[in-house]
Design a protein that fits this description.
Elements (H helix, E strand, L loop, with lengths): L1 H15 L5 H4 L25 E7 L19 H5 L6 E2 L5 E4 L3 E4 L5 H12 L7 E6 L3 E6 L5 E4 L7 H7 L7 E12 L2 E7 L19 E6 L2 H6 L3 H24 L2
Parallel strand pairs: 6-10
Antiparallel strand pairs: 1-2, 1-5, 3-4, 6-7, 8-9, 8-10
Length: 257
């Protein structure tokens, strides 16, 4: 009987190695019915090297071709590699240059502020024109334990971490959800911050909404090391040989009685 129990114990021990606990995969289990004011929406400021799409249309909503700009293939090949083919790059001094009005200060301003500035200065040349401005290079990179790691270009100006994870095909079963690393570079400062996707405090984090060029890295759980590395004996040698030694000892003790 004792040998049967020992075999069952060994089987359970081996089967548990490399598995992921259900609690590791749960997300936001403490959230209850509630209505909460959203007061932490980000205000994105334009920075040098940002790329802006500027569209000017006339009173009949026809685009004015003078303002349509295609990035050249040599000096701005990096933007083309990211799927960005049109727009105005903000230079190192924070300016863009437009037909008719010339130099426009953009860095440090919001999209709306730049739009109003351009519209005010352009009205003397095109009194019935309407100006639209948006980011073209709002991209985020997701790496690690997500199903589709990649760099994604975002069509709007707001993306939160949960939307980004969903865009990348959700977490893998081995994702360490309580310690997701976000790397952010803005205003010549690089920040590193970890957030817990399993807790509702994520909604009030200043990193809940992502910024352009953020890098999101999802680390693996320790269980992945045992589940994916090497063959069977390599994975379980840390427990297999001690168990064999124990069985051998018990058998020897039994035979010597």
């Amino acid at each position: 009987m004792k040998y049967f129990l020992l075999i069952v114990f060994i089987g359970l021990l081996l089967s548990s190695c490399g598995s992921v606990k259900h609690s590791d995969m749960l997300m936001l289990t403490d959230v209850q019915d509630a209505v909460v004011n959203v007061d932490s929406l980000p205000i994105l400021k334009i920075q040098p090297d940002d790329i802006l799409n500027i569209q000017v249309v006339d009173e009949d909503n026809n685009s004015i071709g003078t303002f349509q700009r295609t990035l050249n293939a040599t000096g701005e090949a990096g933007e083309k590699a990211l799927g960005v083919s049109e727009g105005y790059r903000v230079d190192e001094q924070g300016y863009i240059y437009l037909p008719y009005i010339g130099q426009v200060e953009a860095a440090g301003k919001t999209i709306m502020e730049v739009r109003q500035d351009i519209n005010t200065r352009l009205i003397q040349y095109l009194p019935k024109a309407n100006v639209q401005v948006r980011f073209v290079n709002f991209k985020v990179t997701l790496m690690g334990e997500v199903n589709r790691p990649n760099t994604y270009v975002i069509p709007n100006e707001r993306l939160n971490i949960i939307e980004a994870i969903g865009m990348a095909g959700d977490f893998t079963p081995y994702a360490k959800r309580n310690s997701v690393l976000i790397i952010r570079e803005r205003n010549q400062v690089r920040e590193f911050h970890r957030i817990n996707i399993k807790d509702k405090s994520v909604f009030t984090s200043p990193y809940f909404y992502l910024s352009p060029n953020d890098i999101v890295i999802v680390d693996p759980l320790k269980a992945k090391q045992y589940a994916t590395t090497g063959d069977f004996f390599q994975r379980y040698s840390g427990i297999f040989f001690p168990v064999v030694s124990l069985v051998t000892f018990l058998l020897g003790a039994s035979l010597n009685k």
